[in-house]
Amino acid sequence: MNEYRTTTPPVVKNLIIANCVALLAVQLLPWGNSIIEYFALFNAESPLFRTYQVVTYMFLHGGVGHLFFNMFALWMFGRTLEFRMGSQRFFTYYMVCGIGAALLQLGVSYAEYHHALVAVGQMGAMKMLLTPTVGASGAVFGLLLAFGVLYPNQVIMLIFPPIALKAKWFVLLYGVVELFFGISGYQQGVAHFAHLGGMLWGLALLWWWRKRNKIFF
């Protein structure tokens, strides 16, 4: 157990480095805006959409705060999961969750765009085509789900509010909150369905591995 607390396994470490380098590139290079234009995730109806964006978007972030919270969660939960799963399987899990999050977000944003076309017209809906989605949150929410499944009774201390919860209740609470925000429309500008997509694809992959006796819980 001490190994989990004092070392950072290779996939988690390299993912953190890649995300930090990407943010520095966006903020410091003169063509930083072009990086967002080409590698963030755009609505499938947008002229800026590219299929590879379902992968690249998860390495970009909207600022230092956005990056910090995602990388802190990746470091906090990812270390234990990588030691448990092994580096190759952990990387596969992380990427499946991130890509799955993008696919659900694309589906929801596609439906919202066509609804907006009817409700407010083409000019009113145009903004939705030019709004990018960035961040590792979908993949990170998949990690939260895996931690809750594999370590259901591990106690997690929340910061706001400062209470302790078992991991299984922590994950369930987060999932319900994200679903509520996604359906209700509160917290505009946050890809709540991407978060849910990461959790759903993560659950499906864990179930598949369990069925094939590749992971036990």
| Major pleated sheet | 2 strands, antiparallel
Approximately what portion of the residues adopt beta-strand conformation? under 5%
CATH architectural category: Up-down Bundle
Spatial strand order of the main sheet: 1-2
* Structural category: mainly alpha
Q: Please report the distance between the alpha carbons of the first and last residues.
A: 18 Å
Assembly state here? Answer: single chain
Shape: globular
Structural account:
The chain is built from nine helices and two strands; from the N terminus they run H-H-H-H-H-H-H-E-E-H-H. With 217 residues, it is mainly alpha-helical. It has a single domain, classed as Rhomboid-like fold, CATH 1.20.1540.10. Strands 1-2 form a two-stranded antiparallel ribbon. The chain is globular.
Q: What keywords describe this structure?
A:
3% strand, 2 strands, two-stranded antiparallel sheet, mainly alpha, Rhomboid-like fold, 217 residues
Overview in brief:
The protein is mainly α and 217 residues long. It has helices at residues 2-6, 10-28, 32-39, 53-56, 64-85, 87-129, 137-150, 167-184, 192-211; strands at 155-157, 164-166.
